[in-house]
Amino acid sequence: MTDTRRTKEPDDLPSLWTHQPHEELTFRPGDKVADIDAAATPGFRGSKSDAPTLQEERNVRFAELQEMLYANSRAGDTRSVLLVLQGMDTAGKGGIVKHVVGAANPQGIDYRSFGKPTPEELSHHYLWRIRKALPQPGHIGVFDRSHYEDVLIVRVHNLVPPDVWEPRYDEINAFERELVDSGTTLVKVAMFVSLDEQKKRLAERLERPDKFWKYNPADIDERMKWPLYQEAYQAMLDRTSTDYAPWHIVPSNRKWYSRLAILELLIEALKGLNMSWPPADFDVEAEKKRLAAV
Ligand code: AMP
Ligand code: MG
């Protein structure tokens, strides 16, 4: 009798997606930040009510692949994955860390957030703190903000002159080329919320005592600079979306969508490593006999 329990491979994209999020979301030359519809749900035909079940199911798949990556590193595989999260305040970076990455075993996750550099960090090259935070072999690294701040807030606020930040785009490309060549798969995600949605989320932070800790008065100053940020994000996408480390544009007004989409991007990246469970480096049958005897 045929086994009807499974009609598709576990790796199949759930049917609620019409396209791989990767195909829908990868930045294409000519894409304009000003045209992004942050409320859109590209490639997804389901609705919000489908999200909890689907996310739970795909979280399990993600966690399994993460464990496989970890297991292979024990057998000498040195590859790793690095999720780079960029987005304005309230875009939902923290939610991705909590609800998507949080599904995996923390043992194999190297999480790092990047805020305003410390005096020590400032005394070094901007990639110094980034290199120190790269994922170990077999781990999934998560950058909550990243080296891209050095061409975003730094550019918007003139923290260094243009002749200093301008060469950084090429330098970042070379840096990422080096990472990819050494076995790190980059998943670069730019999360976009509309100004209206951001206003709602900031207002909520001001209403709820349990959200005060997330609120920073400077968020409003950044918000007022949105046109300048738009330019900086556009330049970042135009100049650092490469075939080896492309950017993905994730509309993030609907948190359930951005989470599902980024989850699929991670699953796809892990699947691309073509892993299997590492074989036993001992004689399984002999070990069974030995165990039975004691
Ligand atoms: P948050 O992510 O809300 O904790 O905020 C961190 C803040 O640090 C954001 O406003 C970032 O733009 C800022 N930040 C991160 N990296 C840099 C950098 N290299 N230079 C200046 N500010 C930075
Ligand atoms: Mg913040």
Automatic annotation (TrEMBL):
Domain of life from the UniProt record: Bacteria
Entry-linked Pfam families: PPK2
Segments of this protein annotated with the region Disordered: 1-51
GO process annotations (BP): polyphosphate metabolic process
Protein name per the record: Polyphosphate kinase
Keywords recorded for this protein, A-Z: Kinase, Transferase
Biased composition, class Basic and acidic residues, residue ranges: 1-11, 20-35
Polyphosphate kinase-2-related domain ranges (all copies): 57-272
Coiled-coil region: none
Annotated GO MF terms: kinase activity; phosphotransferase activity, phosphate group as acceptor
